Automatic annotation (TrEMBL):
UniProt membrane topology term: Multi-pass membrane protein
Family: Belongs to the ABC transporter superfamily. ABCB family. Multidrug resistance exporter (TC 3.A.1.201) subfamily.
Protein name: ABC transporter domain-containing protein
UniProt key word Cell cycle: no
Molecular-function GO terms, alphabetical: ABC-type oligopeptide transporter activity; ATP binding; ATP hydrolysis activity
GO cellular component: mitochondrial inner membrane
Domain called ABC transporter: residue spans: 224-460
Keywords on record: ATP-binding, Membrane, Nucleotide-binding, Transmembrane, Transmembrane helix, Transport
């Protein structure tokens, strides 16, 4: 902040200096101060050109290198928090990592060298202008003093002009130290102003954002339809994610989206939440375009549970209340019961007032997922979006969370993105995605009866993976063996 204040102060001082030049030399008929003002204009033009160069450089260069650096530091922080130093040294190939980082940093390093060279030329240019102007002022001043009609012009006037110009050059050189920071700000401001200049979303009425939405809720039945939706991310216009996608999710029913990673399942949720707009096609709710609904009101009707639950470093009570800021204690406890979270919360030392730690580090994966589900349910949403909500849990926690999810889905329009296909056997409709389009749809039994179908292939593949995992687990193998021996004994009896 001090740098920019100094920059503004310097600009003010520089303009005052030019004004002083004109005042001090008002009796010299414009001959003496012409050189100084022209020199000041040259210096200002040079300074402005350098600033533009730095702005373009900061906007276009260094972004990838900074990303590599942040990823590298995040890797170090993550591993260091788990392991000791010698373990870190063992896991991470430091030399290879440093070589990669050094290679990616090369453009930034060469840019810094060019920057230093340019500053050196700039300072040299200022010194050259200073000496030339001072010499010119002394020569022209001496010439004016020798003239009889300029007898009032003294050596003091010459020294004043030379001194003021030297001070102004010092102020301009002081500006140079802030050029880089100012250029970075200007480069970053380009994207900010681009966002500010975007056309306003007419469906967002800022005056209605915090109004009561009870009437809005009652007017939504819950039918969702994707009509020939096409979409590509702004950063990858040549890579379509959804291609003429048509999906229907009926009110009060559970609709599952399955397929390999990258086929566009999560993108559907992002479009429904209006994080993005379709490239073409239309998304409707109860037959009305989704753009007709106020974004804030729409999201108040949606509960989302993702694969990685995000909890804040607050109490459990505050984390659940985050879903509905005016929720009462009874509403929070009701949501926790519905999410199968109330019992384990009551066993904690401070119950709902216990701090969960940064990102919920004090809780297990299943507990965090149930808190996230309670946060989604506390506002009693019309729509429930489950993005692989149980894929990161072990079997015991998956059973507990899945029981809560099945109960939460009743009476709500639910869209489930499932990795474990056993969790969607009871879904009312299943859509199988491939490369951004639907290739199969139907119930679990219908799709399993489709010999050679993609869904049947996915189910069989997961069954084989489960068998392999069980065989690799000696505890499970021993348990299965004991059960088999017990069954044989019962048959003998």
């Amino acid at each position: 902040m001090l740098g920019y204040e100094g920059y503004i102060y310097t600009l003010e001082q520089k303009n005052d200096v030019k004004l002083i030049f004109r005042c001090q030399n008002r009796d010299c008929k414009g001959r003496c101060h012409t050189n100084t003002n022209s020199a000041m204009d040259i210096v200002q033009t040079t300074n402005y050109s350098i600033g533009l160069w730095f702005t373009r450089r900061e906007k276009n260069n260094g972004l990838y290198e900074k990303g590599i650096g942040m990823e590298f530091l995040a890797l170090i922080a993550t591993i260091t928090s788990i392991c000791c130093c010698f373990i870190v040294s063992f896991i991470v190939n430091w030399k290879l990592t440093m070589v990669i980082y050094d290679k990616e940093l090369a453009p930034t390093r060469s840019g810094g060298i060019r920057q230093g060279a340019l500053f050196g030329v700039f300072i040299g240019w200022l010194s050259l202008i200073t000496f030339i102007v001072c010499a010119t002022d002394f020569i022209s001043g001496s010439f004016l003093m020798t003239k009889k009609n300029q007898s009032t012009f003294t050596i003091s006037d010459i020294l004043i002009v030379a001194s003021i110009f030297s001070q102004s050059i010092g102020l301009i050189s002081f500006v140079g130290s802030f050029v880089q920071g100012l250029s970075e700000a200007r480069g970053a401001a380009v994207s900010v102003f681009r966002l500010i200049d975007e056309e306003k979303d007419e469906s967002i009425n800022e005056a209605e954002v915090w109004e009561d939405i009870t009437e809005s809720r009652s007017n939504i039945n819950g039918d969702i339809k994707f009509n020939n939706v096409n979409f590509h991310y702004p950063s990858r216009r040549d890579a379509p994610v959804l291609c003429n996608l048509s999906v229907v999710a009926r009110a009060g029913q559970t609709t599952a989206l399955v397929g390999f990673s990258g086929c566009g399942k999560s993108t559907c949720i992002s479009l429904f939440l209006r994080y993005y707009e379709p490239s073409s096609g239309e998304i409707t709710i109860d037959g009305k375009p989704i753009t007709n609904y106020n974004v804030q009101h729409l999201r108040e009707n949606i509960g989302v549970v993702s694969q990685e639950p995000v909890l804040f470093g607050m109490t459990i009570y505050e984390n659940i209340r985050f879903g509905k800021l005016n929720a009462t204690q009874d509403e929070i406890e009701e949501a926790a019961r519905e999410a199968n979270a109330h019992n384990f919360i009551m066993q904690l030392p401070d119950k709902y007032e216990i701090l969960v730690g940064e990102r919920g580090i004090q809780l297990s994966g299943g507990e965090k997922q149930r808190i996230a589900l309670a946060r989604a349910l506390v506002k009693k949403p019309t729509f429930l979006l489950l993005d692989e909500a149980t894929s990161a849990l072990d079997n015991n926690n998956e059973k507990i969370v899945q029981e809560a999810l099945d109960r939460a889905c009743k009476g709500r329009t639910t869209i489930v993105i499932a990795h474990r296909l056993t969790t969607i056997r009871n879904a009312d409709q299943i859509y199988v995605f491939d490369k951004g389009n639907v290739i199969e749809q139907g119930t679990h039994d219908t799709l399993m009866g489709n010999e050679g179908g993609k869904y049947q292939e996915l189910v069989k593949r997961q069954q084989m993976e489960k068998i392999d995992d069980d065989q690799d687990d000696p505890i499970k193998m021993q348990k299965a063996k004991e059960e088999e021996e017990e069954a044989i004994g019962m048959c003998i009896l």
